[in-house]
Amino acid sequence: MQITAQHRQRFTITFLVIFYILAIYKLLNGLWLFQAAPYFFINRFDGTTWLLMQTGIHQWLLNNRTGWILFDVAFYVMPLTWYLAYKSHEGAGTIAAILWLIVNWVYVQCYTLYPINSIESHIAWLLIPLLFATTRLKSFYFVMHGLRYFFLFFFASAGIWKLRQGGIFYPEQMSGILLMQHADYLVSAPGTIFTKYIYWLVKHPAIGQALYVGATLLELFFIIGFFSRKYDKWLMAGFGLFLLSDQLLMRIPYFEVLPLALPLFFSKYKEPVNEVNLT
Amino acid sequence: MFLKKVYRYNKWICSGMLFFMMMQLLVFYRPGMVFSPWFNYGMYSGVIKPAKEYEAYKVFGDNEVLAGNDFTPQQWDRIHFTLIQSDASTCNGHFYDTQISRLFKKFHLPDPGKSFFINTMLDPDMIKLQYQLHLAKVLGKQHVQTIALRYEWDGNSLVEKDSLKAINSQSFQCK
Q1: What ipTM describes this predicted complex?
Q2: Distance between CA A50 and CA A43 in Å, rounded?
Q3: Can you give the pTM of this predicted structure?
Q4: Which of A111, A122, B109, B113 sits 20 to 30 Å CA-CA off A247?
Q5: d(CA A104, CA B161)
Q6: Buried b (16+ CB within 10 A) or exposed e, B132-164
Q7: Interchain proximity B44–A177, CB inside 8 Å
Protein backbone atom coordinates (compact mmCIF):
# COMPACT_ATOMS: atom_id res chain seq x y z
CA MET A 1 0.00 0.00 0.00
CA GLN A 2 1.21 3.50 -0.82
CA ILE A 3 1.63 6.09 1.89
CA THR A 4 -1.27 8.55 2.00
CA ALA A 5 -2.15 11.85 3.65
CA GLN A 6 -4.09 9.83 6.24
CA HIS A 7 -0.91 8.00 7.19
CA ARG A 8 0.87 11.28 7.66
CA GLN A 9 -2.02 12.44 9.84
CA ARG A 10 -1.71 9.28 11.94
CA PHE A 11 2.03 9.81 12.20
CA THR A 12 1.45 13.38 13.37
CA ILE A 13 -1.16 12.49 15.97
CA THR A 14 0.97 9.63 17.31
CA PHE A 15 3.91 11.99 17.59
CA LEU A 16 1.83 14.59 19.44
CA VAL A 17 0.50 11.97 21.84
CA ILE A 18 4.03 10.73 22.58
CA PHE A 19 5.29 14.28 23.04
CA TYR A 20 2.58 15.26 25.50
CA ILE A 21 2.73 11.99 27.45
CA LEU A 22 6.46 12.60 27.84
CA ALA A 23 5.73 16.18 28.90
CA ILE A 24 3.45 14.95 31.70
CA TYR A 25 5.95 12.26 32.66
CA LYS A 26 8.72 14.88 32.89
CA LEU A 27 6.50 17.22 34.86
CA LEU A 28 5.79 14.46 37.39
CA ASN A 29 9.50 13.76 37.71
CA GLY A 30 10.53 17.38 38.12
CA LEU A 31 12.25 17.57 34.74
CA TRP A 32 10.80 20.74 33.29
CA LEU A 33 13.26 23.59 33.24
CA PHE A 34 11.38 25.62 35.84
CA GLN A 35 11.45 22.61 38.18
CA ALA A 36 15.16 21.98 37.66
CA ALA A 37 15.75 25.66 38.48
CA PRO A 38 19.30 25.68 37.11
CA TYR A 39 21.97 27.71 38.89
CA PHE A 40 25.12 26.39 37.20
CA PHE A 41 26.16 24.80 33.92
CA ILE A 42 28.76 22.37 32.57
CA ASN A 43 30.83 22.74 29.40
CA ARG A 44 30.90 19.95 26.87
CA PHE A 45 33.04 19.06 23.87
CA ASP A 46 30.50 20.26 21.32
CA GLY A 47 31.38 22.90 18.73
CA THR A 48 27.75 23.86 18.08
CA THR A 49 27.16 24.39 21.78
CA TRP A 50 30.21 26.65 21.99
CA LEU A 51 28.71 28.90 19.34
CA LEU A 52 25.43 29.15 21.22
CA MET A 53 27.23 29.79 24.52
CA GLN A 54 28.74 32.95 23.04
CA THR A 55 25.28 34.49 23.09
CA GLY A 56 25.27 34.14 26.89
CA ILE A 57 21.71 32.81 26.84
CA HIS A 58 22.62 29.89 29.11
CA GLN A 59 23.91 32.36 31.72
CA TRP A 60 20.88 34.59 31.39
CA LEU A 61 18.72 31.61 32.36
CA LEU A 62 20.58 30.90 35.61
CA ASN A 63 18.42 31.78 38.62
CA ASN A 64 15.91 33.31 36.22
CA ARG A 65 12.44 31.96 37.00
CA THR A 66 10.74 34.03 34.33
CA GLY A 67 13.22 32.74 31.77
CA TRP A 68 12.61 29.10 32.71
CA ILE A 69 8.85 29.46 32.43
CA LEU A 70 9.20 31.27 29.12
CA PHE A 71 11.43 28.50 27.77
CA ASP A 72 9.16 25.72 29.04
CA VAL A 73 6.07 27.34 27.56
CA ALA A 74 7.80 27.81 24.19
CA PHE A 75 9.12 24.23 24.11
CA TYR A 76 5.90 22.53 25.16
CA VAL A 77 3.51 24.70 23.19
CA MET A 78 5.36 24.63 19.87
CA PRO A 79 4.18 21.20 18.62
CA LEU A 80 0.56 22.21 19.13
CA THR A 81 1.18 25.65 17.60
CA TRP A 82 2.74 23.98 14.59
CA TYR A 83 -0.23 21.63 14.26
CA LEU A 84 -2.76 24.46 14.37
CA ALA A 85 -0.74 26.48 11.86
CA TYR A 86 -0.38 23.46 9.58
CA LYS A 87 -4.11 22.89 9.65
CA SER A 88 -5.03 26.53 9.15
CA HIS A 89 -3.10 27.88 6.20
CA GLU A 90 -0.88 26.74 3.34
CA GLY A 91 2.73 27.56 4.11
CA ALA A 92 2.03 28.48 7.74
CA GLY A 93 2.92 24.93 8.76
CA THR A 94 6.37 25.20 7.24
CA ILE A 95 7.09 28.54 8.91
CA ALA A 96 5.82 27.20 12.24
CA ALA A 97 7.99 24.06 11.83
CA ILE A 98 11.09 26.18 11.25
CA LEU A 99 10.25 28.25 14.32
CA TRP A 100 9.67 25.02 16.24
CA LEU A 101 13.08 23.76 15.12
CA ILE A 102 14.77 26.94 16.38
CA VAL A 103 12.92 26.80 19.72
CA ASN A 104 13.86 23.15 20.18
CA TRP A 105 17.49 23.83 19.37
CA VAL A 106 17.86 26.67 21.85
CA TYR A 107 15.86 24.86 24.54
CA VAL A 108 17.70 21.54 24.23
CA GLN A 109 21.13 23.16 24.03
CA CYS A 110 20.50 25.15 27.22
CA TYR A 111 18.56 22.43 29.05
CA THR A 112 21.35 19.90 28.62
CA LEU A 113 24.06 22.35 29.67
CA TYR A 114 22.51 22.25 33.12
CA PRO A 115 23.02 18.99 35.00
CA ILE A 116 19.69 17.44 34.10
CA ASN A 117 20.21 15.10 31.17
CA SER A 118 22.50 14.32 28.24
CA ILE A 119 22.02 16.04 24.89
CA GLU A 120 22.31 12.78 22.94
CA SER A 121 19.03 11.51 24.39
CA HIS A 122 17.30 14.66 23.08
CA ILE A 123 18.28 14.10 19.45
CA ALA A 124 14.65 13.47 18.40
CA TRP A 125 13.64 17.04 19.27
CA LEU A 126 16.54 18.40 17.19
CA LEU A 127 15.47 16.54 14.05
CA ILE A 128 11.74 15.80 14.04
CA PRO A 129 10.54 19.36 13.18
CA LEU A 130 12.35 18.96 9.85
CA LEU A 131 9.94 16.19 8.97
CA PHE A 132 6.94 18.35 9.80
CA ALA A 133 8.27 21.21 7.69
CA THR A 134 7.38 19.17 4.59
CA THR A 135 4.24 20.18 2.73
CA ARG A 136 4.17 17.47 0.08
CA LEU A 137 3.57 13.78 0.62
CA LYS A 138 6.66 12.65 -1.30
CA SER A 139 8.86 15.02 0.70
CA PHE A 140 7.34 13.63 3.88
CA TYR A 141 7.97 10.10 2.66
CA PHE A 142 11.63 10.71 1.85
CA VAL A 143 12.46 12.73 4.97
CA MET A 144 10.73 10.11 7.12
CA HIS A 145 12.89 7.42 5.56
CA GLY A 146 15.95 9.62 6.09
CA LEU A 147 15.06 9.70 9.79
CA ARG A 148 14.55 5.96 9.73
CA TYR A 149 18.10 5.48 8.43
CA PHE A 150 19.38 7.83 11.11
CA PHE A 151 17.61 5.80 13.80
CA LEU A 152 19.16 2.62 12.43
CA PHE A 153 22.56 4.30 12.54
CA PHE A 154 21.92 5.48 16.10
CA PHE A 155 21.68 1.88 17.31
CA ALA A 156 24.05 0.18 14.90
CA SER A 157 26.82 2.65 15.72
CA ALA A 158 26.38 1.94 19.45
CA GLY A 159 27.05 -1.73 18.69
CA ILE A 160 30.01 -0.93 16.44
CA TRP A 161 31.47 1.30 19.17
CA LYS A 162 31.41 -1.63 21.59
CA LEU A 163 33.50 -3.63 19.14
CA ARG A 164 35.75 -0.70 18.33
CA GLN A 165 36.39 0.31 21.96
CA GLY A 166 36.71 -3.27 23.15
CA GLY A 167 34.02 -3.27 25.84
CA ILE A 168 32.50 -6.43 24.43
CA PHE A 169 35.78 -8.33 24.73
CA TYR A 170 36.35 -7.61 28.42
CA PRO A 171 34.72 -10.38 30.51
CA GLU A 172 34.02 -8.20 33.56
CA GLN A 173 32.72 -5.23 31.59
CA MET A 174 29.15 -5.43 32.90
CA SER A 175 30.34 -5.80 36.50
CA GLY A 176 32.39 -2.64 36.11
CA ILE A 177 29.50 -0.77 34.49
CA LEU A 178 26.98 -1.79 37.16
CA LEU A 179 29.21 -0.77 40.06
CA MET A 180 30.07 2.53 38.44
CA GLN A 181 26.50 3.29 37.40
CA HIS A 182 24.81 2.37 40.66
CA ALA A 183 27.40 3.09 43.37
CA ASP A 184 25.30 5.90 44.87
CA TYR A 185 22.18 3.76 44.87
CA LEU A 186 23.89 0.66 46.27
CA VAL A 187 25.38 2.43 49.27
CA SER A 188 22.18 4.36 49.97
CA ALA A 189 19.82 1.39 49.86
CA PRO A 190 21.59 -1.79 50.98
CA GLY A 191 19.38 -4.80 51.35
CA THR A 192 16.80 -3.77 48.75
CA ILE A 193 15.83 -6.17 45.97
CA PHE A 194 17.47 -4.00 43.33
CA THR A 195 20.73 -3.76 45.30
CA LYS A 196 20.80 -7.53 45.83
CA TYR A 197 20.09 -8.08 42.14
CA ILE A 198 22.90 -5.76 41.06
CA TYR A 199 25.39 -7.33 43.48
CA TRP A 200 24.35 -10.76 42.23
CA LEU A 201 25.04 -9.74 38.65
CA VAL A 202 28.39 -8.21 39.61
CA LYS A 203 29.37 -11.44 41.35
CA HIS A 204 28.35 -13.47 38.30
CA PRO A 205 30.30 -11.67 35.58
CA ALA A 206 29.52 -14.33 32.98
CA ILE A 207 25.79 -13.61 33.27
CA GLY A 208 26.38 -9.86 33.33
CA GLN A 209 28.59 -10.12 30.28
CA ALA A 210 25.97 -12.24 28.50
CA LEU A 211 23.55 -9.32 28.97
CA TYR A 212 26.15 -6.90 27.60
CA VAL A 213 26.85 -9.10 24.59
CA GLY A 214 23.11 -9.53 24.08
CA ALA A 215 22.63 -5.75 24.09
CA THR A 216 25.49 -5.34 21.62
CA LEU A 217 24.03 -7.96 19.28
CA LEU A 218 20.65 -6.26 19.52
CA GLU A 219 22.25 -2.96 18.52
CA LEU A 220 24.12 -4.60 15.64
CA PHE A 221 20.87 -6.22 14.49
CA PHE A 222 19.72 -2.74 13.43
CA ILE A 223 22.20 -2.96 10.53
CA ILE A 224 19.75 -5.26 8.80
CA GLY A 225 17.36 -2.32 8.46
CA PHE A 226 19.74 -0.71 5.95
CA PHE A 227 19.12 -3.59 3.56
CA SER A 228 15.48 -4.45 4.17
CA ARG A 229 12.33 -3.04 5.75
CA LYS A 230 10.96 -6.52 6.34
CA TYR A 231 12.34 -6.68 9.86
CA ASP A 232 11.16 -3.26 11.06
CA LYS A 233 8.59 -4.81 13.38
CA TRP A 234 11.33 -6.81 15.04
CA LEU A 235 13.50 -3.73 15.27
CA MET A 236 10.65 -1.92 17.02
CA ALA A 237 10.34 -4.80 19.46
CA GLY A 238 14.12 -4.67 20.00
CA PHE A 239 13.88 -0.95 20.66
CA GLY A 240 11.14 -1.56 23.23
CA LEU A 241 13.33 -4.15 24.94
CA PHE A 242 16.22 -1.69 24.94
CA LEU A 243 14.10 1.03 26.58
CA LEU A 244 12.77 -1.37 29.19
CA SER A 245 16.18 -2.83 30.05
CA ASP A 246 17.74 0.61 30.24
CA GLN A 247 15.08 1.70 32.69
CA LEU A 248 14.98 -1.45 34.82
CA LEU A 249 18.62 -2.52 34.87
CA MET A 250 20.57 0.69 34.27
CA ARG A 251 17.96 3.11 35.63
CA ILE A 252 18.53 5.26 32.54
CA PRO A 253 15.38 6.78 31.03
CA TYR A 254 15.81 6.94 27.27
CA PHE A 255 12.19 7.62 26.38
CA GLU A 256 12.94 10.93 24.66
CA VAL A 257 14.19 8.93 21.66
CA LEU A 258 10.76 7.33 21.19
CA PRO A 259 9.56 9.59 18.32
CA LEU A 260 12.52 8.48 16.21
CA ALA A 261 11.11 4.95 16.20
CA LEU A 262 7.90 6.08 14.48
CA PRO A 263 9.36 5.78 10.93
CA LEU A 264 9.89 2.06 11.60
CA PHE A 265 6.16 1.67 12.04
CA PHE A 266 5.26 3.67 8.93
CA SER A 267 8.03 2.29 6.72
CA LYS A 268 5.72 -0.49 5.45
CA TYR A 269 3.92 2.04 3.24
CA LYS A 270 5.36 2.50 -0.22
CA GLU A 271 6.45 5.64 -2.03
CA PRO A 272 3.44 7.55 -3.37
CA VAL A 273 3.17 7.53 -7.16
CA ASN A 274 1.40 10.87 -7.37
CA GLU A 275 2.44 14.02 -5.58
CA VAL A 276 -0.04 15.23 -2.95
CA ASN A 277 -0.04 18.66 -1.40
CA LEU A 278 -0.61 18.19 2.33
CA THR A 279 -1.71 21.64 3.33
CA MET B 1 18.87 3.01 -4.06
CA PHE B 2 17.26 5.40 -1.62
CA LEU B 3 19.52 8.42 -2.22
CA LYS B 4 19.15 8.07 -5.97
CA LYS B 5 15.37 8.26 -5.62
CA VAL B 6 15.66 11.29 -3.36
CA TYR B 7 18.04 12.93 -5.87
CA ARG B 8 15.55 12.40 -8.67
CA TYR B 9 12.75 13.81 -6.57
CA ASN B 10 14.40 16.83 -4.98
CA LYS B 11 18.07 17.81 -5.16
CA TRP B 12 17.84 20.07 -2.10
CA ILE B 13 16.55 17.30 0.15
CA CYS B 14 19.19 14.97 -1.27
CA SER B 15 21.98 17.51 -0.63
CA GLY B 16 20.76 17.99 2.93
CA MET B 17 20.79 14.26 3.53
CA LEU B 18 24.25 13.84 2.03
CA PHE B 19 25.60 16.69 4.16
CA PHE B 20 24.05 15.16 7.27
CA MET B 21 25.53 11.76 6.46
CA MET B 22 29.00 13.12 5.78
CA MET B 23 29.06 15.09 9.03
CA GLN B 24 27.81 12.08 11.00
CA LEU B 25 30.41 9.81 9.45
CA LEU B 26 33.15 12.36 10.11
CA VAL B 27 32.19 12.61 13.80
CA PHE B 28 31.97 8.82 13.96
CA TYR B 29 35.33 8.33 12.25
CA ARG B 30 37.18 10.91 14.37
CA PRO B 31 35.92 10.49 17.92
CA GLY B 32 36.37 13.34 20.36
CA MET B 33 34.73 16.61 19.56
CA VAL B 34 31.14 16.55 18.33
CA PHE B 35 28.94 19.13 16.62
CA SER B 36 25.32 18.68 17.62
CA PRO B 37 23.23 17.17 16.09
CA TRP B 38 26.10 14.88 15.15
CA PHE B 39 27.03 12.80 18.16
CA ASN B 40 28.66 9.51 18.94
CA TYR B 41 26.45 6.97 20.65
CA GLY B 42 29.03 4.93 22.53
CA MET B 43 26.77 3.79 25.40
CA TYR B 44 29.41 2.24 27.70
CA SER B 45 31.54 0.97 24.84
CA GLY B 46 34.95 1.60 26.43
CA VAL B 47 36.46 -1.00 28.76
CA ILE B 48 35.21 -0.42 32.32
CA LYS B 49 36.94 -2.61 34.88
CA PRO B 50 35.51 -3.13 38.35
CA ALA B 51 37.54 -0.87 40.65
CA LYS B 52 38.77 -1.64 44.15
CA GLU B 53 37.52 1.68 45.42
CA TYR B 54 34.55 3.87 44.58
CA GLU B 55 33.61 7.30 45.71
CA ALA B 56 29.96 7.92 46.29
CA TYR B 57 27.87 10.65 47.79
CA LYS B 58 25.50 10.17 50.66
CA VAL B 59 22.79 12.78 50.79
CA PHE B 60 21.06 13.47 54.09
CA GLY B 61 17.67 15.11 54.38
CA ASP B 62 17.01 16.17 57.98
CA ASN B 63 19.77 13.76 59.12
CA GLU B 64 18.32 10.75 57.29
CA VAL B 65 20.08 9.18 54.34
CA LEU B 66 18.13 9.52 51.10
CA ALA B 67 17.70 5.99 49.75
CA GLY B 68 17.64 5.25 46.03
CA ASN B 69 14.59 2.99 46.28
CA ASP B 70 12.45 5.90 47.50
CA PHE B 71 12.89 7.76 44.21
CA THR B 72 12.24 7.13 40.54
CA PRO B 73 15.39 6.80 38.40
CA GLN B 74 14.70 10.30 37.06
CA GLN B 75 14.36 11.82 40.51
CA TRP B 76 17.44 9.96 41.75
CA ASP B 77 19.38 11.28 38.76
CA ARG B 78 18.33 14.79 39.64
CA ILE B 79 19.69 14.33 43.15
CA HIS B 80 22.96 12.57 42.36
CA PHE B 81 23.78 13.62 38.82
CA THR B 82 23.41 17.27 39.82
CA LEU B 83 25.67 16.69 42.80
CA ILE B 84 28.40 15.00 40.78
CA GLN B 85 28.14 17.68 38.10
CA SER B 86 28.52 20.39 40.71
CA ASP B 87 32.04 19.03 41.23
CA ALA B 88 32.60 18.84 37.48
CA SER B 89 31.54 22.47 37.10
CA THR B 90 34.76 23.52 38.87
CA CYS B 91 36.54 22.32 35.72
CA ASN B 92 34.78 24.77 33.40
CA GLY B 93 37.70 27.22 33.51
CA HIS B 94 40.27 24.49 32.99
CA PHE B 95 38.22 23.15 30.07
CA TYR B 96 38.10 26.59 28.51
CA ASP B 97 41.88 27.05 28.83
CA THR B 98 42.86 23.61 27.58
CA GLN B 99 40.22 22.97 24.93
CA ILE B 100 37.95 25.80 23.84
CA SER B 101 40.53 28.59 23.69
CA ARG B 102 43.13 26.24 22.17
CA LEU B 103 40.82 25.09 19.39
CA PHE B 104 39.61 28.59 18.57
CA LYS B 105 43.25 29.67 18.23
CA LYS B 106 44.09 26.63 16.16
CA PHE B 107 41.42 27.53 13.62
CA HIS B 108 42.29 31.24 13.74
CA LEU B 109 38.93 32.18 15.19
CA PRO B 110 38.58 35.15 17.54
CA ASP B 111 38.84 34.12 21.19
CA PRO B 112 35.25 33.92 22.48
CA GLY B 113 36.15 35.05 26.01
CA LYS B 114 36.26 32.94 29.12
CA SER B 115 33.29 34.58 30.82
CA PHE B 116 30.78 32.72 28.62
CA PHE B 117 32.16 29.35 29.62
CA ILE B 118 32.52 29.61 33.40
CA ASN B 119 30.01 30.03 36.17
CA THR B 120 30.43 33.68 37.06
CA MET B 121 27.30 33.87 39.19
CA LEU B 122 28.34 31.35 41.85
CA ASP B 123 31.70 29.95 42.94
CA PRO B 124 32.03 26.18 43.53
CA ASP B 125 31.27 26.39 47.26
CA MET B 126 28.21 28.48 46.62
CA ILE B 127 27.03 25.99 43.97
CA LYS B 128 27.13 23.22 46.59
CA LEU B 129 25.30 25.42 49.07
CA GLN B 130 22.67 26.34 46.49
CA TYR B 131 22.29 22.63 45.70
CA GLN B 132 21.53 21.88 49.34
CA LEU B 133 19.03 24.73 49.59
CA HIS B 134 17.32 23.77 46.33
CA LEU B 135 17.10 20.08 47.21
CA ALA B 136 15.75 20.86 50.69
CA LYS B 137 13.00 22.89 49.05
CA VAL B 138 12.19 20.16 46.50
CA LEU B 139 12.11 17.43 49.16
CA GLY B 140 10.31 19.51 51.75
CA LYS B 141 13.15 19.13 54.26
CA GLN B 142 14.54 21.63 56.73
CA HIS B 143 18.10 21.07 55.59
CA VAL B 144 20.13 18.83 53.31
CA GLN B 145 23.71 17.71 53.79
CA THR B 146 26.02 15.86 51.44
CA ILE B 147 29.18 13.93 52.11
CA ALA B 148 31.41 12.08 49.69
CA LEU B 149 32.75 8.81 51.02
CA ARG B 150 35.13 6.17 49.76
CA TYR B 151 33.94 2.61 49.49
CA GLU B 152 35.83 -0.61 48.92
CA TRP B 153 34.52 -3.38 46.72
CA ASP B 154 35.22 -6.46 48.87
CA GLY B 155 33.94 -8.91 46.27
CA ASN B 156 30.56 -9.02 47.93
CA SER B 157 29.37 -5.46 48.43
CA LEU B 158 30.57 -1.87 48.68
CA VAL B 159 31.91 -1.31 52.17
CA GLU B 160 32.47 2.11 53.67
CA LYS B 161 36.15 2.59 54.46
CA ASP B 162 36.50 3.51 58.11
CA SER B 163 40.07 4.62 57.77
CA LEU B 164 39.18 7.46 55.42
CA LYS B 165 37.50 10.51 56.78
CA ALA B 166 34.57 12.05 55.00
CA ILE B 167 35.50 14.46 52.29
CA ASN B 168 33.50 17.45 51.13
CA SER B 169 33.73 16.74 47.43
CA GLN B 170 34.61 13.79 45.32
CA SER B 171 38.21 13.91 44.21
CA PHE B 172 37.25 15.12 40.78
CA GLN B 173 40.07 15.44 38.30
CA CYS B 174 39.73 17.91 35.46
CA LYS B 175 40.54 16.47 32.05
Answers
A1: 0.90
A2: 8
A3: 0.92
A4: A111
A5: 46
A6: bebbbebbebeebebebbbbbbeeebbeeeeee
A7: yes
